User: Which sequence fits this backbone?
């Protein structure tokens, strides 16, 4: 089962994708993480990516395509991927379809988290990421504590692009380029829209119920073939 998790910057995609991956034994794939891994190598491509991300822009679809194709060709991840925030535009959605067919896979569910602009800004400005374990916290909504985070606050960092000017730029880009693909997956009967303004656990429960229902349907379909 492969899933897509959509939503504007700060919608909580990373948090929910992390929970889903643990509950259903899926591998979370974030293009942001893939790009940051490239950046850590300090190659020329990594430097170009840094410049784009710091300005709130996206890298070229061709770069993303090659990174995603590498993931889909990994046999250990066959049909057990959750795409966190990808695809970001209609061209990427169509390209993903091609790459999935090439690797004999498909998307089972596309989940869309709908969040208002004011909540998004507060979530992003408060976002903190542990550079040791990768867990995501928020100093306003879900702060790191001794109980929830064993690494300690010294490892908590803010992303360089988490400032209000870049947030606004990325939000406008999302509205222009990403929202059109919602209709793409709606036409495929794969889209489920979720109120992303709700409590984190409420959102998790809603998502879990949707996925569990699909798993039951797929099991029955296989059983009575």
Assistant:
């Amino acid at each position: 089962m492969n899933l897509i998790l959509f939503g504007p910057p700060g919608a909580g995609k990373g948090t929910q994708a992390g929970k889903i991956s643990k509950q259903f034994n899926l591998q979370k794939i974030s293009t942001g993480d893939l790009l940051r891994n490239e950046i850590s190598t300090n190659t020329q491509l990594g430097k170009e990516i840094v410049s784009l991300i710091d300005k709130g822009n996206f890298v070229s679809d061709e770069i993303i395509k090659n990174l995603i194709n590498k993931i889909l060709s990994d046999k250990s991840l066959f049909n057990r991927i959750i795409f966190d925030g990808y695809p970001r535009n209609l061209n990427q959605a169509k390209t993903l379809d091609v790459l999935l067919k090439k690797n004999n896979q498909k998307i089972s569910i596309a989940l869309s988290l709908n969040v208002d602009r004011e909540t998004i800004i507060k979530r992003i400005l408060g976002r903190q990421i542990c550079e040791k374990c990768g867990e995501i916290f928020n100093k306003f909504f879900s702060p790191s504590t001794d109980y929830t985070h064993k690494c300690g606050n010294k490892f908590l960092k803010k992303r360089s692009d988490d400032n209000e000017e870049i947030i606004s730029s990325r939000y406008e880009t999302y509205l222009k380029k990403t929202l059109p693909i919602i209709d793409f997956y709606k036409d495929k009967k794969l889209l489920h829209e979720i109120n992303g303004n709700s409590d984190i656990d409420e959102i998790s429960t809603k998502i879990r119920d949707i996925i569990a229902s699909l798993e039951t349907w797929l099991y029955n379909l296989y059983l009575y073939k």
Summary: Residues 130 and 156 are 4 Å apart (CA to CA). Confidence is low (pLDDT under 50) at residues 219-225. The longest strand covers residues 109-114.
